[in-house]
Specification:
Distance between the termini: 46 Å
Bound molecules: adenosine-5'-diphosphate, magnesium ion
Largest sheet: 9 strands, mixed
Structural class: alpha+beta
Number of strands: 19
Strand content: 25-35%
């Protein structure tokens, strides 16, 4: 009798582990997985190419709803769209915000604090000066940079109830460093509400997944190589996570032989140049992954590592340095396949 109980006990543990580490071992076939059909949608929004994939047994309208959700978020958060809530706030210096815009702005201000200014949601005057939003890019004068820098002041943004206000003329919000991560998180939430067990969204290289593939294998996400357009730094196996990369190679212009990219260091007013070429953040929280990919890129290697060491947040990272080193945190090292040599980062405390 005792033996039988023990037997069932071990089967129980096995099933539990099996269930928890679902992607690494073949899944038992259920009605859902056997009948799962691939549905995809792709379109252009948020200034980037977006693809969404779900595996579902039924003909599904969830992708239509998801696309509408992306467009809705773009309409709310895009500072360059005159009718958006953020543009209205920038223009009127007062606005009642929707829950989405309020939440993203609130989080952006939290990351501004935790990253000690590396993530700066009031970067808009500098982005505009460098011409990135309009595409009319140019290198500004030192005096122009100084003037715009004085406006990159998130401390002048105040949130009360669902109202937001800007307390200094000329201070303007730009959520470009966090909006896509919030969007991918919201899409995954929507999939979950619609009972989707397996899916992936890709917003121009910002990837987030739900579950694993129907055959039980994990999703594989290629991390873009900064110098070779069609090549990868490596491939990460992932499930139920966001994998979000920031790099100066994504949007840039050249003038007089020098390159200027779209991630601005708000301690100088110039494109960040602190020794990193690419920063990938891996986390179940897409909003966090997006904000931190931008912030840690600005910080540079030393500060980024220190931030990761002391942070209570749940995230892992892959950093590529200007001198060609690839740093990978221990937790994800085994599932990141690359031809390069990996320097493994361990938690010290
Ligand atoms: P991408 O959106 O190209 O994937 P990022 O997530 O790094 O890359 O976001 C870059 C965008 O973030 C810029 O286009 C700009 O809108 C905004 N941004 C630039 N510098 C900063 C900064 N220091 N802090 C917060 N946002 C920034
Ligand atoms: Mg970002």
């Amino acid at each position: 009798m005792k033996k039988t109980i023990k037997y069932f006990y071990w089967i129980g543990i096995f099933v539990l582990l099996f269930g928890l580490s679902a992607c690494s071992v073949p899944q038992p076939k259920t009605e859902d997985t056997i009948n799962a059909e691939k549905h995809t949608a792709d379109f252009f929004a948020m200034d980037t190419y977006i693809t969404m994939t779900v595996y579902d047994a039924q003909e599904t309208s969830v992708l239509e709803i998801a696309k509408k959700r992306v467009l809705e978020l773009e309409e709310k958060l895009n500072a360059e769209d005159d009718d958006s809530e953020i543009a209205t706030l920038n223009h009127n210096r007062n606005a009642v915000l929707s829950q989405d815009a309020y939440q993203v702005l609130e989080k952006a201000l939290v990351y501004w604090q935790t990253t000690e200014g590396a993530f700066n949601p009031a970067i808009h005057p500098l982005m505009a000066l460098w011409g990135f939003p309009t595409g009319k890019t140019r290198v500004p004068t030192e005096q122009e940079v100084k003037t715009a820098l004085a406006l990159a002041r998130p401390d002048k943004i105040v949130l009360t109830d669902e109202m937001a206000s800007i307390q200094q003329p000329g201070v303007q919000i730009d959520l470009g460093g966090i909006a896509k991560g919030y969007t991918s998180s919201e899409l995954i939430k929507l999939f979950r509400q619609n009972d989707i067990k397996s899916g992936l969204v890709n917003l121009g290289g910002n990837v987030q997944s739900i579950g694993c593939k129907p055959d039980g294998s994990p999703w594989k996400v290629g991390i873009q190589h900064p110098d070779r357009e069609k090549d990868y730094l490596g491939i990460l196996e992932t499930q139920n996570e966001a994998v979000i990369t920031s790099g100066g190679y994504e949007r840039f212009f050249e003038e007089n032989g020098a390159t200027y990219h779209h991630i601005i260091d708000s301690s100088t007013g110039y494109p960040a140049d602190n020794g990193l070429i690419s920063v990938t953040i891996v986390s179940p929280d897409g909003t966090l992954a997006d904000a931190l990919s931008t912030a840690l890129y600005v910080m540079g290697e030393e500060k980024a590592l220190a931030y990761w060491q002391k942070s209570a947040d749940d995230f892992e990272m892959i950093l590529l340095t200007q001198d060609g080193r690839l740093l990978v945190t221990r937790e994800i090292a085994a599932r990141f396949e690359t031809d390069m040599k990996k320097e493994i980062i361990e938690k010290t405390a």
